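FORM 7B - TANDEM STRUCTURE REPORT

SECTION 1: FIRST PROTEIN
SEQUENCE AND TOKENS:
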Amino acid sequence: ASVLAAPRADYTARLLGDAPALSARDFLPEPAGEPAIVARDLVKEFRGFRAVDGVSFEVARGSTHALVGESGSGKTTTARMVARFADPTSGTVEVAGAETDFRRHVQLVYQNPYGSLDPRQTVARIIEEPLRNFKLDGSARDLVERVALPEDVLGRKPRELSGGQRQRVAIARALAVEPEVLILDEAVSALDVTVQAQILDLLAELQRDLGLTYLFISHDLAVVRQISHTVSVMNKGRIVEFGTTERVFTDPRDDYTRELLAAIPEAVR
């Protein structure tokens, strides 16, 4: 406890300073404007098991909405339906501006960038692939600069990069097609706290500069508090709480939400 309360080593203090905390900064303001994502009464069944049960939410354009829950809560299945990687058993999803070219307007960034990047290709070829596929102007050099990577990474392969660098490459590749929506599926959960803080800062900067809309999938409430404007808490396939991040964190109305918040270690409150 003394290490957390009064760290003596600079490295320890830096780690604790970078760790997301439930009270680290002001809440993001309630978003305004037209919705970029509208999910209505989504249901997904697998062999009679209802993994998602009547889920509805909206995400305002240029804002971040978090889907929060433990493993098996249905949050990733919901995200896959929004991304059209899975068809709902019933219900609808509308993504503004994406009806004519959905694959371009909605991009995903995964938890494990190493698994989503072709290990045989250089970073330049990885980033240039979507530019070629969609016949778009743009350069890998500009995109790595956009995500604060040095130009010399273009000649490297994923195995030669750190975890944080690989995640920046994955983000650069997603940005190549100029999407409106990024779905971030546990995109920082595999990173150490210092790199995690840097990626979260990058995502916030990109959202401010490019007007991106994020659907952020996470089990980490401290991270969610930092990055999201609104939150849906999922449990057993249903949304049990929805609201602004400030309201959900300061005035939780569902017992399950209160349990999740109470489980956060005191050191990060």
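SECTION 2: SECOND PROTEIN
SEQUENCE AND TOKENS:
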Amino acid sequence: MAVSDPANPFRSFQVRGRVVGITAEGGAEHIEKLAQRYTGGPYAWYGGRDQTRLIMTIEAEKVSGVG
């Protein structure tokens, strides 16, 4: 997973690892919560509400960053 600072594109970090868990339970609720947090509204469901949202748990093996 890579994350960059929107205020400074030269500042970022990444986490490398392996997926140790995958579940669909709570996936739809989680994307709705993220949409509310970051857009202030409901998730748009561009692919239709019948799509399956997954939550993956990643076990970090390496973390690196710049900036």
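SECTION 3: OBSERVATIONS ON SECOND PROTEIN
The two ends are 17 Å apart (CA to CA).
The chain has a mean pLDDT of 94.

SECTION 4: SIGNATURE
Preparer initials: ____
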